[in-house]
């Protein structure tokens, strides 16, 4: 199952802390922690001349 929600980094960290030690959620906690560590921002990406100033990522 895939679940998508919007939360701040702080809220995700609080969620991880709240589920710490809850039996059966180790895999879920690991997946959330791994995604939290991934940087999906666009910083460091420079648009080519003529491109829009904002580059949207498509997934």
TrEMBL record:
Annotated region (Disordered), positions in chain: 36-59
Annotated protein name in UniProt: Uncharacterized protein
Organism lineage string: Bacteria, Pseudomonadati, Bacteroidota, Sphingobacteriia, Sphingobacteriales
